[in-house]
Amino acid sequence: MPVRPLDLLDLPTVYRYRHASLALDITRALTRGDPLGPIGLLAYLNPTRHVYTAVSKHDDQAPLMGSVTHRENDTSARLSFLAPRDDLVTDGLPALLDHLAEQAGKWGAVHVQAEVDELSPVFKTLRRAGFAVYAWQRVWDLSTLSSDESSSTFWMRARQRDLLAVHNLYYQIMPALLQPVQASPKRVSGMVLREADEVRGYVELIYGPYGILLNPLIHPNVEKAAERLSNLVRALPDRRGRPIYLCMRSYQTWLEPALEDLGALSGPRQAVMVKYLAAAQRAEKLAANPEAAWAKPAAPMAHTSNRGGLQAKQELNLLRESGRPVPEPIVWKE
Fold it and tell me: Which residues, at least 6 apart from 174, have a Cβ–Cβ distance to it below 8 Å?
């Protein structure tokens, strides 16, 4: 059976897999719970987010299910989950991954991201499907971290006027390889750390019903890193007893000894994997033939956008015009 979109007849399979999915978008999994749980399914009602789930049935094997998400105007889409977690390495998985990537391209995405444990058997299948390792990451649980009880607060809520300073910090820390994939913030929604009248740190805060995820950008010259991280836990607004997680990517691993000293709990190492698509070429074709962008009267309705591909094409053109090469992915050897 070819890969097909999820429909109402698949609801029994969704129910059966509700606790058996493999999350590939760690941010959503930690903040919103199981992608096949009630809150995860509410994402289908968000008009600014594209969500697509497909089912693949190969011979007599258990049906496979996978999902990809994309936020309007973003250049990157994300694999959300695959299911069932314990029976994924089958002949039908490559076709399912290709199908999900094709859907992301139709939305105008230039690349698809996935985050997976390095020891997971799905890791090798993703590589064979065209995904390359761009970075490594580890999620740290700060929930049991004893907060700094000092009266001074080094972290403050970021304001829009801090955006330029955050951009400068981003370009100082973010490797060129990752800049096309992990874009600089368009707006600030977190905490900033100031030292000597300079922004030395920025932490993006992502809230959800099940937890709070911190994405740090902290300069290596920051003073007393362990103390600053402990103080950050105390300064977090609107915690309401939720777990706190910090996603530490490979370009910030110098902070890990400080987290160990504070007693934070580390998770397994994960690969940040990226697959580039041909969305820019499709966007160019649609620009040359505007009539192709109009929906046909007999076609089913779908909420899609091609602006993300156009935006990514402009970013790639600016990168080439500056004389800098477009970064190539890390080549992983067997």
Answer: 182, 184, 217, 251
